[in-house]
Amino acid sequence: MNPLGSAQDPLWYKDAVIYELHVRTFADGNDDGTGDFRGLISKLDYLAELGVTCIWLLPFFPSPLRDDGYDIADYLNVNASYGALSDFREFLASAHERGMQVMIELVINHTSDQHPWFQRARQAPAGSVERDFYVWSDSIEKYRGVRIIFTDTEKSNWTWDDKAGAYYWHRFFSHQPDLNFDNPAVLDELLRVMHFWLEMGVDALRLDAIPYLVEREGTSCENVPETHDVIRRIRADVDATYANRMLLAEANQMPNEVRAYLGEGDECHMAFHFPLMPRLFMALRTENRRPLAEIMEQTPSIPDTCQWALFLRNHDELTLEMVSDDERDYMYLAYSADPRMRVNVGIRRRLAPLLENNRRRIELLNSMLLSFPGTPIIYYGDEIGMGDNIYLGDRHGVRTPMQWSGDRNGGFSRANPSRLSSPLIMDPLYGYEAVNVEAQRDDPSSLLNWMRQMIKLRRVFKVFGRGTIEFLAPSNPKIVAYVRQYEDERVLCVANLSRFAQPVSLDLPDLQGLTPIEMLGYVEFPKIGAGSYCLSLGPYGFFWFELH
Ligand code: NOJ
To answer: Which of 69, 57, 53, 55 is nearest to 23 (CA)?
Structure first.
């Protein structure tokens, strides 16, 4: 039993820098062509050097891998191609030794159709506890009008099962039946799963797809009150047994709906700020801060113990579900010229190609990721500017092996290249010979070293993870400016969304008499006086000023 977790501070997640990776594609320790825990353990020093404080692992459980592991067939084990449970334990201990926390997935909305619970349910008599582990219906008229999420593959949220002689409900792929939370035995089982991993010492759980837990007739079957009851029960169970653990809500919804998943500090500790992400890209492309200002205005305040999770890219498509029709059209036009770049309601591309490999744009968006209120999450490979492969199916194009060096298979594996579970990026611009850790490690001006430096800087100041934010409204709309404050730490951030140099004059009456020190070079700027404070910023330039 491990009630305490590895972190000392109960609010550790507020100061964290999270790194998202897939064991399958990170490093191959036994050279069979698939990444594994042994490989990952060998790369922990790299992550520690980068400044990462928490590792988020994508699902690593036994699974048919038809949704890259989000289709779980056994919650209590490790997929044999990634190693054994003992390897996971060793990974966990090794991460903890280096002062890093570990977050894993708790996928509770659905299982794989190969999970024994589903196989049992299909054969069990209608109305039995076993059958009712999932959501069944004789007719597809039930829950009519509920939107389909995987629009490219699914035509309905119901699929017929011959064995059961009934339709089963699924919000994602048809091979992922939704669990039925109206059956109390389901939550009991899932709590057992949760304890299994938390007792081992896992620090945090990402609650996948939680808006869809409970279905109710006449609603969108998203965010219904009964879903929040389930989450409160999960949280109460965590709090009753453990300390210093964290629950992160994956709810791709508008800010007020996402806010509900933090409750009164009695649901999740953190929630992804989904609506902010596409608007960062929109603001950059339109060279106008309006999309950011609007979404931040709509973002409600959150309980003191809670925190937003911020990200630029992840293992999924850049989702456009939570933007207006016009904004979606604009984003498709601006960021996915080739229709193959699109999947479902979004764009399947990595950060560097989205930003046309423009180093200044990449730095600008990362500077906002690291200075907006919340905890930043970096998607593996984006710290070296990895590319994607739009010719791979589903979202696999953004899930290719990590590029460690210019050697065979990018140093990811010594297997025969034909045996790799996923091909490496090989084009001349983003291929592993051009973009890799080894080359960037030795280059003081590489993106990798820039990221390392920025993460280090961020970690020195608590204000970034814990401070308040106040947006300024300079007359130049191409400039985003905000003041962060925590106790006696005060930071002024100014960013230029334009590809051209821009002037800005800031009204800073509350900061009069203070001296801004530019934080990257520790350069003193003129004192803030009674009038406007004037600055010039280069193309896509930004400043972080510590205020003395
Ligand atoms: C959310 C995950 O991020 C995504 O990758 C997955 O496909 C869906 N949940 C369904 O499991």
So the answer is: 57
Q: 70 C-alpha to center of ligand 1: Å?
A: 6
Distance CA 188, CA 475 (A): 56
Q: CA dist 500 to 190, 279, 330, 543, Å?
A: 53, 20, 22, 16
Distance CA 532, CA 511 (A): 11
Q: Is the pTM value of this prediction over 0.85?
A: yes
Catalytic residues: 208, 250
Which residue, by CA, sits nearest to atom 4 of ligand 1?
316
Looking at the DSSP assignment, which residues form a beta bridge with residue 379? Answer: 20
* β-sheet with 342-343: strand ranges across: 318-319, 346-347, 342-343
The CA 208 to ligand 1 mean position distance, Å, reads: 7
Helix (H) or strand (E) holding 292: helix 290-298
Alpha-carbon torsion 526, 531, 537, 540, what sign?
Answer: positive
Q: Which atom of ligand 1 lies closest to the CA of 107? A: 11
Pocket of ligand 1 (CB under 6 A): 67, 70, 172, 208-209, 315-316
What would the pLDDT profile of 478-535 be if each residue is shown by its tens digit? 999 999 999 999 999 999 999 999 999 999 999 999 999 999 999 999 999 999 999 9
